[in-house]
């Protein structure tokens, strides 16, 4: 009997019913936002040497920015670092050095040179998530800019809705950003694609419209599909229509 497993921990990545865990095939749903992030990466990587390769991805919470950044960091063999509150330049450089399989040195200047030398030998894109934590004190972002200038590797900053506005206040930094993409709310076509690719039960167009009107974050979409599947399984249904969807979603 097939096991029913939905991988929620990785956000966009989900698995369908499989007869064995060994042959599960993960699905990464390439929504409009995911494609926008990928396009930004391609644009940065293809820029001429005299153009900066710093990008900004921003948007509201719940739209899959972090999950997408994690997934794409694996796909593009990039360094992924998540900023934290009060993160100093030294702390950031230490995290980058560790991702480069280096043992961070003691002094900030030495760690910086360590990262530069390693990135010159083996260039890797750097994705820094949760940059909102760094916007109160711009020294850490300035260190990232310096790292870019020394190595030429693309650096992508990922932040919340106000990240662009806050960065604009520091024109000497904002002017260095050559690519910007804003994550937007899920469109009907995105939700239709997600339901078609990960749902084990058919969800009608009217039901998809209802999800679109009531559900905003990816996590909520996945939880809704999971609830639909449980209702279908419990009642022997092969399809979730608008009426059933309304009951599950509470009207």
Compact summary:
This protein has 251 residues and is an alpha/beta fold.
Question: What layout of secondary structure does this protein have?
Answer:
Blueprint: E1 13-14, E2 27-28, H1 32-45, E3 54-59, H2 65-75, E4 79-82, H3 89-99, H4 108-121, E5 126-129, H5 139-151, E6 155-159, H6 163-168, H7 171-174, E7 177-183, H8 188-198, E8 202-203, H9 205-214, H10 218-235, E9 239-240, H11 242-248
Parallel strand pairs: 3-6, 3-7, 4-5, 5-6, 8-9
Antiparallel strand pairs: 1-2
Structure overview:
The chain has 251 residues and is of the alpha/beta class. Helices cover 47% and strands 14% of the residues. The protein folds into two domains: 32-183, Rossmann fold; 187-248, Helicase, Ruva Protein, domain 3 (Orthogonal Bundle), CATH 1.10.8. The strands form three sheets. A five-stranded parallel β-sheet has the order 4-5-6-3-7, with helices on both faces. Strands 1-2 form a two-stranded antiparallel ribbon. The longest helix has 18 residues, at 218-235.
């Amino acid at each position: 009997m097939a096991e029913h497993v939905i991988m929620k921990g990785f956000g966009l990545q989900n698995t369908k019913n499989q007869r064995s865990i060994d042959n599960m095939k993960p699905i990464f749903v390439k929504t409009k936002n995911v494609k926008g992030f990928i396009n930004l990466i391609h644009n940065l990587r293809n820029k001429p040497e005299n153009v900066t390769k710093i990008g900004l991805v921003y948007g509201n919470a719940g739209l899959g920015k972090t999950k997408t950044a994690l997934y794409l960091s694996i796909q593009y063999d990039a360094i992924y670092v998540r900023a934290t509150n009060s993160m100093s330049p030294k702390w950031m450089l230490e995290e980058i050095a560790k991702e480069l399989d280096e043992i961070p040195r003691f002094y900030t200047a030495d760690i910086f040179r360590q990262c530069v030398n390693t990135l010159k030998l083996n260039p890797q894109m750097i994705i820094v998530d949760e940059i909102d934590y760094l916007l109160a004190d711009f020294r850490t972002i300035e260190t990232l800019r310096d790292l870019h200038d020394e190595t030429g590797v693309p650096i992508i900053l990922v932040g919340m809705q106000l990240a662009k506005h806050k960065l604009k206040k520091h024109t000497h930094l904002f002017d260095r950003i050559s690519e910007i993409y804003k994550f937007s709310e899920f469109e009907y076509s995105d939700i239709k694609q997600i339901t078609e690719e990960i749902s084990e039960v058919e969800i009608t167009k009217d039901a998809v419209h209802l999800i679109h009107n009531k559900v905003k974050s990816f996590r909520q979409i996945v939880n809704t599909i999971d609830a639909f599947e449980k209702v279908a399984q419990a009642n022997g249904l092969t399809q979730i229509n608008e009426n059933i969807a309304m009951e599950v979603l509470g009207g």
